[in-house]
Amino acid sequence: MNDEQQPASPGPGPIAEPEPTQPVLGPRPSAPPTLPPAPSSAPSSAPSSATSSLPPAWIPPGPPGQTDQTRLLPAAPRPHVRRRRGWRVPAVAALALVLGLGGGFAGSALYDRVDDEGPRAGTVAGGLGDVDTAELPPLDADTASVAAVAQELLPSTVQIRAELNGEAGGATGSGFVLDRQGHVVTNNHVVASAAEDDGAIQVVDEEGNRYDATIVGRSPVYDLAVLYSEDAKELQPAALGASRRLRVGESVVAIGSPLGLSSTVTAGIVSALQRPVTTGDAENDASYISAVQTDAAINPGNSGGPLVNLLGEVVGVNSAIATTGGGLGGGESGNIGVGFAIPVEQVRITADQILRTGEATYPVIGAQVVTGQRDGDGAQIQEVVEDSPAEAAGLEKGDVVVRLEDERISDGIQLIVAIRTHQGGETLEFTVLRDGEERVLDIELDSEVG
């Protein structure tokens, strides 16, 4: 994730323990990353006034930029996740979570839009439907093994080397081949700096061949990016699976380039599903993810690489790791057995949008929510935007959202994450507490680019 959630070499970042620590984004290959200083005081049990703000008329969940923090929900005290871009760790920004209701505010501002002069290189009018992806699992239950998965997926997994603050290859991460048209999926935080500075990006395959690549589009809100390389059309695409079929305890394999070590394979299990995690901050492309949690070893540089089931199907994109944190001058923490991946279902949706237009969208309702409360009693609405879907449905300042559809909501971040698993145009049922009484409101989600 970002500097808060440091993805290993833009890879996933670590997550903190009881006291929130600030995760750092992708590490660089050159010098060992340094961990940001831990907070000076322990988290308060009193509700925080931190709120997320959103653009008029919307609400969401999403991904990161140069520096991002990841919080684990609904555990308290909440740990922070770090992302790592490369060996260098960018400075950690202050945490200012923007509720999906307004979340992605900054992400939208930093998001690169398609050129007015015409479609961006690599866009495809029909999206995923017009490219040659691999949909059938390459393995079956009889041949399933970590060794078999490695053999099938290593040719489809690549290392990403991107310019970081003017340094060629300063950000290193991972990615996987999406189709036979030269498209590669990775984390946004791996290429965010290169995108902002028009820096060079290279894709490196299993054999060490390098291909120049450009960004088709990226989503800071979901921490995803799609790259395009005209010369990488011969690379083997990875098969896309479904994270919704995963079970806790099921074996999975993480593949990527941790610490710059390309073609590295680690194995573990799914340790949790639909884990609400956030990385980044309001000013640095905050991301909110309903993540697949795994104990497969993920380190800086793994960011953007595939998390794969034993049938050889991609079920997620490795994006962040939890860390125990460290004091001033402390070194970066590596894998501690808690990593997070973006579900492949979100990858499909975001990649399809980017391929069609060079942009991605996320759902919003038009409200600000308090994100610092940890009492587990729901998500308190701080403000409702005028002429927004939230206002039209009757949502009011002070309302506490306790349920979204059939999902119990414990706090503001969980609400953002829950909303962002849906799409603009959907109508969702919000159960809120007002003056001690429960009310049910139907809100039609709007959408924003980000």
Mean pLDDT: 77
- Report the portion of residues in β strands: 25-35%
Which consecutive residue ranges, at least 5 long each, have pLDDT under 50? Answer: 1-9, 13-118, 326-331
Q: Helix segment count?
A: 6
Write a brief caption for the model.
It contains six helices and 26 strands. It has 450 residues and is mainly beta. A hairpin with a 4-residue loop joins β10 and β11.
Please provide a written account of the structure:
With 450 residues, this protein is mostly beta strands. The chain has 2 domains: 1-45 and 61-359, Beta Barrel (Thrombin, subunit H); 361-449, Pdz3 Domain (Roll), CATH 2.30.42.10. It contains 6 helices and 26 strands. The strands form 5 sheets. Strands 3, 4, 12, 13, 14, 15, 16, 17 and 18 form a 9-stranded mixed beta sheet that branches. It is globular and about 65 Å long.
Which short descriptors sum up this protein?
single chain; 450 residues; mainly beta; Thrombin, subunit H; Pdz3 Domain; nine-stranded mixed beta sheet; seven-stranded antiparallel beta sheet
